[in-house]
Amino acid sequence: YVQLNPEMRLDLEFGVSVRGVNDTRVGLADIGFLTRELHPDETGLTSTPLGRDAMAFILHKDNPVSALTENQIVGLFARSYASWGELGGSERSVFIVGLSEGRAGREICLEYLGLKTAVTRHDLSLSTSEQVVQAVATRPGAIGYISLASARELLPHPGIKILPLAGLMPLPENVQTAKYPFVRPAVW
Predict the structure, then answer these.
(1) What does the pLDDT average to over 143-163?
(2) Which helix H or strand E contains 104, and what residues bound it?
């Protein structure tokens, strides 16, 4: 873009979506990129959809569980299950890895699961999907959620496996046709 438009300056900074909103609102940026829709209180701005980013639940590669229902995943994150044995796995304790408060991915995950922040408690909260992949890969009882776009350079990863949702894997054709249910918008 810059080569075709040398009079333009393009600086990209990655951070949390709220920063994109705030920087655009106060004039520090002309365009902000978000991985969620605008909130109702984020007035005075408009958004344009750019695409969809698949989110996925991941398990440690040695976990014998190969699929979970949406209700089981909700139960895991609501702390209804203490052991993978309750879900057909080993008696290993469940260890929940997720994104930190304020991260759009966490917000999207809890919204997808229909859970409130007050009901959930992660054993380990991290800043990036890459960190979640690494943490799940080193903890045999772990479950986590990631943005596939954010973690794409680590995938496939030998230490994790991705769970199907509604019988579907988060493949590009399933995301593009809106068959895969766990996605977040990319807007500007």
Answers:
(1) 93
(2) helix 104-113
